[in-house]
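look at this stuff:

>
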Amino acid sequence: MKKENIYILGIESSCDDTSAAVLCNDSILSNVVADQKIHAEYGGVVPELASRAHQQNIVPVVHQALEKAGISKDQLNAIAFTRGPGLMGSLLVGTSFAKSLAFGLNIPLIDVNHMQAHILAHFINETDHKTPPFPFLAMTISGGHTQIVKVNSHFNMQVIGETIDDAVGEAYDKSGKVLGLGYPAGPEIDQRAQRGNPKAYKFTKPKVDGLNFSFSGLKTAILYFVQRETKANTNFVQENLNDICASIQYTIIEILMYKLKLAVKQTGIKHIAIGGGVSANSGIRKALKEAESKHGWTTYIPKFEYTTDNAAMIAIVGYLKYLENDFSDFDVMATARLKL
């Protein structure tokens, strides 16, 4: 007997990307993302500008997602949206739109935790991607979050380690600002790191108990290092930029991998999945691949388009919740600090 197709529209608006995606069961039909270039001028996301841009982008982005998927809005079975965490103004745009459309179409509304979606993006049906078996460890690394999560099932997740201050993506961006790089700095640091010596400069790794992380001390150490060296040589950064970037990246990856090894040791779980914007980093991907042969891990690395904020990951959570009849009331509220 042929399974009936379920069409889910996913809407993501947690930060500065407006995205809409359509899934047919667990397969992607479309995944449209409109990014906001304006924030580069300010060296970071400006919340008020982000929410205004979402208001401008959301209707055309949803229209384009439906058009690319080749379906009409009347074929949709449910609408999934990011409830949080994220910027409140941005979340409100997506939440309000999703509620209005679901109400108008008289179909279920499904709220999604953004961090859960980064993890469950691994369950999007892709021919060249293997799905992690339960239980597995997930490391979510982004501009706003750094967590190690024990994933027992689709909707049974336990945070076993997290940052006590800044996220890893913030460490990249703030370090890049000190070096005079543009925003976001992570991709450029990654590119330059590949041309530099990772052991040219040594930065102290913060000591934090258990599986938790800290990156504020590292940011400060990099700032003082650059100030000290440029005092002696005003051209120090320009002359050694690749080596500095390589050394920063090496230190960050060492911190992440040390905690991940500790998590494997404590839990006995050797299936490791990564997610979040920083998981696009080539150094982190390489370190995980090396750990496969060195430590006997099996690693799961998402496609690049599912690492940054996107609606496909929201839609897959929507599909999995739809199968469980786990729907939201229409009085559901966006929550900026939503916990996993």
Remarks:
- The domain at 7-122+307-323 is CATH 3.30.420.40 (Nucleotidyltransferase; domain 5).
- The chain has a mean pLDDT of 93.
